[in-house]
Amino acid sequence: MDVWGRDSSRPLRGCMNSQTRKDKRSADVGLIFNIQKFSLHDGTGIRTLVFLKGCPLLCTWCSNPEGQCFVPELAYNRNKCIGIHECDHCRPLCEMDAITHAADGKVEINRTLCNDCGKCVDACPSKALTLFGEYITVPDVIRIVEEDGSFYARSGGGLTLSGGEPISQPEFSTNVLSTARSRGIDTAVETTGFCEWDAVRSVCEHANQVFFDVKSMDSEKHRAGTGVSNELILENLVRLRKEFRKLRITVRTPVVPGFNDSREDIAAIADFLSRLPIPVQYELLPYHGFGEPKYQQLGRKYLLGDVKPPSQECMATLRRVVISEMNLTRTEA
Amino acid sequence: MAQVAELARPLLSPQEERIERGEPIGLVSEEAQRKRARIHRMLAGFRDKPIRMNLERAHLLTESFKQTEGQPVIVRWGKALAHILRNISIHIGEDELIVGSAGPPGRYAIFFPELEEKFFTQEARPSEPDDSLVLTEEDVQVINEELKPYWEGKQYHGAFINALPDDTRRILELYCIIAPTATARSSLAWNHDYEKVLKRGIKGIKAEAEEKLASLDPVNPKDRVEKEPFLQAVILTCDAIVEFAHRYAKLARSMAKKEKDAKRKKELLEIAEVCEWVPENPARTFREAVQSQWLIQTVSRLEQRIGGTVGNGRIDQFFYPYYKKDIEEGRLTKDEALELVECMWIGMAQNVEIYTAPGSLSFTDGYAHWEATTVGGVDKDGKDATNELSYLLLQSKKEFPLNYPDLAARIHSQTPEPFLHAIAETIKEGTGFPKLFFDEEIIPLFLSKGGTVEEANDYCICGCTEAKMINHDAVSTGCAWTNLGAIVEMTLNDGKLKLFGDQQIGVSTGNPRQFKSYDDLWHAFCWQAENVMKHTFTQQYVADTLKAKFIAAPMCSMLHDLCMKECKDIHDGPIDGALYLGFIDTLGFATAIDSLAAVKRLVFDDKKLTMAELLDALDANFEGKEAVRQMCLNAPKYGNNDPYADSIGRNIEAFFVKLTRKYKSAFGGELDIRYVTITAHVPFGAVLGATPDGRKAGEPIAEGVSPSQGADKKGPTASLVSIANTKASGYKERAARLLNMKLSPSAVAGPEGTRKLMSLIRTACDLKMWHLQFNIINKETLIAAQKDPEKYRNLLVRVAGYSAYFVDLTPQLQDEIIKRTEHAF
Ligand code: SF4
Ligand code: SF4
Fold first, then answer.
1. Do B26 and B43 touch, CB atoms closer than 8 A?
2. Fewer beta carbons below 10 Å: N end or C end of chain A?
3. A25 C-alpha vs ligand 1 centroid, how far in Å?
4. Is the dihedral of CA B784, B785, B786, B788 positive or negative?
5. Which of B441, B466, B699, B733 does the annotation list as catalytic?
6. How close is the nearest chain B Cα to the Cα of A203, in Å?
7. Which alpha helices (H) appear in B550-601, and where do they start and end?
C-alpha cells in the first residue's frame, strides 16, 4: 500500500511523478482540473462544480480519471491533433524526447519518458495537448464561482466541490467553502469519505450539503473495485451523521454492473443507512462509460470497456429494494 | 469518485418520442384527439398538400389599378382592395367553424405583383412535379402576359433602385453587404389593433370616418387633397370588409340548404349568423370575437404583404372578456374555445410565405412566417396580466402540432410561478415554443423612446423578435440587414471583398499588413463600418420617402389611432405624434467579435502570428494552414463570459449605437441596432472568405446575438452573462437581440429539470435579456433527420425567432443548427 493507503499493484503513473515534483498545494492554493458551470445534477439549483485533483481511491469505473492523481498530467486528444504535416509544433519542444511521430501522421506520447512538464501544451495550436490540473488560489475560485451569482439566487444553487477527492486538499477546501459561505453562497461537497476524520470534519463543517459515496458494504469487494477497504469510509459516515445532526447528507452509490448491481449489494447498503441515528437521503446512480475517452487521452487503459450501463429495469428493481429496506414512504431513492 | 453528471442514455423530448413512434401529424395527446376530434381531422394530411399560388388577388388588383390610373394612391388601393374583397373566390371547408381564407383551399401562397420583381425579370416557369409550390401553365401565362406587362416599370422596387445615389446602388446590388428588405414587402411585421374592431365593429370605424369627412374644412386644400381621399378610401374599405363577411354568410346558408348532415347544417347556419354580425358590429361572444379577428387578418393578407405576415397581438388580453363571459354564462367550454382558436391556427398555417423578390430568397428559410401571438406580461397598469386564456393558449401550443402561430410569452419579474411552470413544460415539449420576451428590458427601453407607461406596458410581440406599441409606433418600411462579417473582411482587405477581386467596395483603410497595433485595426474596422452604415441609412431614407408613392394600406391605416387622427396612410410618413422605431440589423455579431479578438490576441498581444501569416492563411482559406486555423479557433470567444472577447463586443455595439444616435431617419425616427438574422446568416456567410475567428470561406456567420456556432463552451449561464456584458446599456438606440439556446432533453428532465429551466428563465429576466428561445433536442435526432427526411418530416426546430420543419430547411442551415452548441451537463 502506498502513502494513500492505496493498493500499489495498480499504481498511477502521474502519481509516481508526484514523488519527484514540487507540490505547490497549500491552504491558499489548490490543484483543480475543471470548473463547470450550469451543473444541474449535483445539489440544489444551478451550480458551479469545482473539481479538485487527486483521489485516494482508484475506482475502476471512475469517469473522471484526470481527477485521480495529485499532480498536473499531460493529456493528448488524438482526434484534435492536426498532425505533423500541418503542425509538428510540439515535438521539438520536448526535452524528454517523449513525443514521436506516429504512423497515421499524428504524434505519440511516450508515457514513461514524459514528466508532465507541460512545455508542449503552450505550443499546440489545436489544444490536442492539454494539461489536466491547474493551481488556483482561493480568491480566484471564488471570483469564478460568483460570476454565476444571479443564477444561484434564482435557483437556490451555489458551489459544489467535487473531484477527485476535495477532502484530500482539506485546508484549501475548507478555505474555499468557508469563504463562499461567508459571502452567502450555498455550499456542497462530493466525497468518497476516505480521508482522516479531522479533515472530513473541517471541510464538511462549511458545507450545507454533503454527497457521500458508499460503494459496497463488502470490504474485500470494495478493495477490489476501488483499491481501498471501506471501514474508514463507513466510520466517517457514522461520525459525520452524529456530529452534524442538521447537515443534509445524501449517500450515493454508483451502480456498476458486475460490481454492486445485485439486490444483496444494494440491500446491504440500504440496511446500513437505515440504522443511522438520523436519516440520510440515498441515491442510486447508474454507471456510464462516458469517461472512457479521457483514459485514452491520459495514455491509460480503461478496464470497463465491455461493461454496459445497468438497464432501466435493473435500476428500477434496485430502487424498490432501497425503498423497502429503508422503509421509505416516498421515493427518496 | 464517480461523478455522474449525465444520465446513461440519451433522453428524448416528447416531440422526439412521437417521431420515434412514427405518429402521423395530429393533436398530440389522445385526450385532445378525442375532445377536439374536428381539429384532429382537419390536421390529417395537412402537410402533404401542395402549395398553390393565389394569382386571383394579383389579377383583381391589376384589373382595378388599370381603372384608377392617376388617382390618389390611397384611393387606388382602397378601390383595389374593395374590388378584391367583392370578387375573389371564397370557400368554406369541411369541418371549418371559423371561416375566411386569402387563397384557394389547402395551403397557398399569395402572389404580390407590386413587389415580385424577380418573377418579372427572370422567366417564370411552371413547377416540376416535385416542387412544393404548384405553378401551372395558366399561372405562368397570367404572370407573363397579364401581370408583367402592366407592372413592369410601375413597381416600388425599380423606382427605389433608380433613386439611390450611385455608390449606394452599387453596394446594394452586391446583395451581400447590405440587404435591403424595404421593397420585398409592403410593411414590416405588423399587428393590427384588433380590439378596436371587436369593441366598435367596422361600423364604428366607418362612422368615425364619415363624421370626420363631414367636419373637414371645405376650403382648406390639405383637407381636400389629403384627408378627403383618405377618408373616402376608409369608408370604401369598411363597406367592402362587411360585404366580404356577408359573402361568407351567404355561402354558408346556401351550403346549409344542401347539407344532409343535421349537425353540420346547424354549424353552417351558425357560421352564417356570426358572419352576418361581425366584423360589422361589435363582437358579443368568444366565437364572434375569434371570427371577427380572423376576418380582419384575412383581409390584411389580401391588402398587403406584411413581412413575417400579420401578428395576432395580445390575444390572451383582448379575447379574455368574451371568453370569461361565455364560460361564466355556460355558452362555452374550454375545449370549444380551444377548437375555435385552433381553427384559426389552421387558417394561418395554410398561408405560406414565398419570397421571390431579389435578394430575399433564402433569407427566410423554411417558409417562415410569424403570426406572433403574445401571452402573459404585465397589463397597462403594470400588474401581471396572466389569465385562464393565457394557460389555455399554452396548452394548445403543446397539443397542436403545426408551427403556427408563433407563440411568444412575455416574462416579467412577477410572472406567476404556475405560469412560468406551464411555459417551461411547453418548452420541454421540444418544438421551440414559446419564445420568451422580457418585460424588464423592453418596457424601460420603450419608455425611454417616448412611449407612455400604458403603451410600454401593453407592448406586443410582432414579427420574429420585434415588439410594438401598436397605436404609437408607425414604422412600416422593411429595414436592412448589414453584414458584419463583410465589414471584417474589408477591414483586413483595404475595403475589398475576395469574391469581387480588386473592386473597391468599402473605403480604403490601408494595407492591414502595416497595422502596428490593435488600435490601427479597430480604427479601420470603424471606418469600414461607418461607410456601410452610411449606405444603410441612405437606402432606408430613400425607401421611406418613396414608398407612399406606390403603396397604401387603407385597412391597416384605419385601425391605427394616429393615422385616423391625421387622416393619413400608414406608409405616408411622417405622421404627427408617431414614433418611428426603425432599426438596422447587424448580422454576424459574434463573428466580428471573435475575429477581432483573435487578431488582437494572436498578432498583437501574444505575437504568436504575424499579420502576414494570418492574412496568408485567410487568403488560402486555411488550406495547408490548419495550425493557424486552430490557433484562431482557440483564441478567446464571445459567449464564455470572457472579458477579453466581451469587451470587444461591447465596443462594437457602442460604436454602432453612438453612430446611429447621430442621425435621424426620413420620418424623424431612430434607427436602432438590432441583432436578428432570421436565416440571412447563411447567404451572408456564403459570400465571404475565411475570417480570423477560424470560420472557413462560405460558412455561415454567427446568428443573432448568439455566440458563434459551437464557440460557447462554458455553458448557457456564461453565454447569458456575456450577452448582458456586451450590451450598451447606457444607450436607448437598441432593439431586439435574438438568442438561441440548445439544451439536451436530459438537462431538463423530470420535475427537477422543469424547476431548473424556470430558474434559468428567471435569471435571464434578471439579466435583462430581450429574447430567448430554446431547442430541447438531441443532436443525434437532427443528424438522423438529415439522413432520413421522410421519417422526420414533422420535426420542428427553432430557427431564428420562429420554428420551422427541419426537413424544409436548406442543408447549410441544417448543418448550422446541428453545430450550435448543445448544453447537456
Ligand atoms: S509534457 Fe513535457 S515531457 Fe511530456 S511530452 Fe510535453 S514537453 Fe514532453
Ligand atoms: S502540436 Fe498539437 S496538433 Fe501539433 S502535432 Fe503536436 S499534438 Fe498535434
1. yes
2. N
3. 21
4. positive
5. B466
6. 17
7. 554-558, 561-566, 589-599
Q: Show contacts of B166-174: CB within 8 Å, 24+ apart.
A: B167/B535, B168/B535, B168/B538, B168/B539, B168/B542, B171/B505, B171/B532, B171/B535, B172/B535, B172/B539, B174/B497, B174/B500, B174/B505
Helices B589-599 & B484-491, crossing angle to 10 degrees?
30
Contact B759 A57 (CB under 8 A): no
Q: What pLDDT is attached to residue B353?
A: 79
CA-atom Rg of chain B in angstroms = 26
Quote the pTM value: 0.90
Chain A nearest-CA residue for B622: A86
Rg over alpha carbons for chain A, rounded to the nearest Å, is: 21
Q: Which run of H or of E encompasses A38?
A: strand A29-39
Eight-class DSSP state of B93:
-
Put simply, the answer to whether A87 touches B627 (Cβ < 8 Å) is yes
- Grid coordinates representing B414 are 412577477
pLDDT confidence of residue B127 = 80
CA–CA gap between residue B184 and residue B356 (Å, rounded): 8
Alpha-carbon gap, residue B725 to A40, rounded angstroms: 24
- Counting Cβ atoms within 10 Å, is residue B493 exposed (0-12), middle (13-18) or buried (19+)? buried
* SS3 sequence of B597-614: HHHHHHHHHCCCCCHHHH
Give yes or no for residue B334 having a pLDDT over 50: yes
Per DSSP, the three-state class of B745 is helix
Does residue B314 have a pLDDT over 80? yes
pLDDT at B450: 94
Amino acid, single-letter form, for residue B106: G
Q: Provide residues with CB under 6 Å of ligand 2.
A: A 81-82, 84, 87-90, 107, 123-124, 126, 128-129
**How far apart are the CA of A63 and the nearest CA of chain B, in angstroms?**
6
CB pairs under 8 A between A and B: 127
Alpha carbons B508 and A154: distance in angstroms, whole number: 50
Give the dihedral sign, CA B28/B33/B35/B41: positive
Contact B3 A190 (CB under 8 A): yes
In B621-706, which ranges are E strands? 670-675
Which residues make Cβ contacts (< 8 Å) with residue A94, sequence separation at least 6? A114, A119, A120
Whether A6 shows a pLDDT value over 90: the answer reads no
Given B176, B275, B460, B464, which residue is catalytic?
Answer: B464
| Amino acid at position B310, single letter | V
Q: What is the DSSP secondary structure assignment for residue B579, as one 8-state letter?
A: B
* ipTM value greater than 0.90: no
Residue A15 pLDDT: 52
Among chain A residues, the shortest Cα distance to B747 is held by: A40
Active site residue B466: yes
User: What pLDDT is recorded for position B1?
Assistant: 28
> How much distance in Å is there from the Cα of B815 to the middle of ligand 2?
27
State the residue for C-alpha cell 453584414: B483
* Residue B792 Cα distances to B25, B498, B784, B787, B807, angstroms: 11, 39, 8, 9, 7
Question: How does residue B614 score in pLDDT terms, banded at 50, 70 and 90?
Answer: very high
Going by pLDDT thresholds of 50, 70 and 90, the confidence category of residue A20 is low
Q: Would you tell me the crossing angle of helices B518-547 and B156-163 to the nearest 10 degrees?
A: 130
Cell readout for B458 is 401593453
Q: Phi/psi of residue A99, each to 5°?
A: -105, 130
Q: CB–CB of A126 and B628 under 8 A?
A: no
Average of per-residue pLDDT across A59-79: 93
| Separation of alpha carbons B536 and B531, rounded Å | 9
Amino acid (1-letter code) at residue B32: A
A245-298 pLDDT per residue, tens:
999 999 999 999 999 999 999 999 999 999 999 999 999 999 988 788 889 999
